[in-house]
Design goal:
It is a single chain. This protein is of the alpha+beta class and 72 residues long. It is built from 1 helix and 4 strands, in the order ββββα. It has one helix spanning 59-71, and strands at 2-6, 13-17, 24-26, 33-35. The strands form 2 sheets. A two-stranded antiparallel sheet has the order 1-2. It has a two-stranded antiparallel ribbon with strand order 3-4. The protein is rod-shaped, with a radius of gyration of 21 Å.
C-alpha cells in the first residue's frame, strides 16, 4: 500500500510505498529532502494563479514612464 504526503519545500504530493514511512525522500520536482510521513494529510501545493508574481526591480518605474509617454 502507498502513502501520500506533501513535499516540505514545494508542496507537491509525493507517493511512496508504506514501508518507507520515516525515510528521507528526495522530491523529483524541487530536489528537497522530505521525511515520508503517514499522517494522510496532503496539503495542496500553492498555485501560481493565487500568488502574485513579484515584479522585477524598476518595473513599476518603467510602467509609469511608459504610461506618461503614451499620454503625451
Amino acid at each position: 500500500m502507498a502513502i501520500q504526503f506533501p513535499c516540505s519545500q514545494c508542496g507537491r504530493t509525493l507517493k511512496v510505498d508504506n514501508r518507507f514511512v520515516g525515510a528521507k525522500i528526495r522530491c523529483p520536482k524541487c530536489g528537497a529532502i522530505t521525511r515520508a510521513t503517514a499522517t494522510g494529510h496532503v496539503q495542496p501545493a500553492p498555485t501560481s494563479a493565487s500568488a502574485p508574481r513579484p515584479e522585477k526591480p524598476g518595473a513599476a518605474a518603467r510602467k509609469v514612464a511608459q504610461a506618461r509617454t503614451e499620454e503625451a
